Amino acid sequence: MKKEILILNGSINGELGNTFVLLNEVADIITKENHPCEATIVNLVNSRFDYNLFDKILNADIYIFGSGTYWDSWGSPLQSFLEWLTPLEGSSDILGKPSGVVITGHSVGAKGILSRLQGVLSTFGFAIPPMTGMVHTLASQESRKALEGLDFKDEMWSKDDLYIIINNLLEYEKVRKYCNFLSWTNNGSEFCDKVWIKL
């Protein structure tokens, strides 16, 4: 049975941006390498947060989150999505499911976003297998070209690292069924409705 990989593009530019190009390459790798899974890309900037998207989230086995770099943070479509998804935090629907992160940017700031987003996803209940996050910037892409033939060229992420992310997510999915993850006891879908500030 094929695994479902849901690729969520949180860039403000949707299909017109660099993040979509990179995430589309992820989907192509999955198809070309004949992996036992199917990939669906959702551009959150164009997506209505409705039952159709909710069903895709529940049915997915693996998630890949992507975003550009905007003022030291991920895109507003991804932020809105995470806020909308909050009732699922720690639920059995997502608990322990593997997720990867791909961040794009021009030069600086993207690595901090990668680390922070992985932290958010882990606290949310998603699993972060090893080596399942990367940053791809214009600066590193052009630097790698200039450093061609030199050993330390590989000190920077490249599009080839997408293969590693996909492999590690699929490897983790193989063992997930043997894990018995527990959620925090204070997780509940009603907490957003409680007013605790006293005037």
Features:
199 residues, alpha/beta, Rossmann fold, 6 helices
Strand and helix layout:
Blueprint: E1 3-9, H1 18-32, E2 37-43, H2 51-59, E3 62-67, H3 76-85, E4 99-105, H4 110-124, E5 133-137, H5 138-146, H6 161-176
Parallel strand pairs: 1-2, 1-3, 3-4, 4-5
Descriptive overview:
By secondary structure, the protein is an alpha/beta fold. It has one domain: Rossmann fold, CATH 3.40.50. 37% of the residues lie in helices and 16% in strands. A 5-stranded parallel beta sheet has the order 2-1-3-4-5, sandwiched between helices.
Largest sheet: 5 strands, parallel
Any idea of the CATH topology? Rossmann fold
The whole-angstrom Rg is 17 Å
Proportion of residues in helical segments: 25-40%
The CATH superfamily title: Flavodoxin domain
The CATH class designation is: Alpha Beta
Number of strands: 5
Count of structural domains: 1
List the secondary-structure elements in sequence, H or E.
Answer: EHEHEHEHEHH
Content of β-strand: 15-25%
> Unreliable segments (pLDDT under 50, ≥5 consecutive)?
none
> What number is the mean pLDDT?
89
What CATH architecture do you see? 3-Layer(aba) Sandwich
Biggest sheet, strands in spatial order?
2-1-3-4-5
- SSE class: alpha/beta
Q: CA-to-CA gap between the ends?
A: 55 Å
Looking at the structure, what is the overall shape? globular
In quaternary terms, these chains amount to: single chain
Number of helices: 6
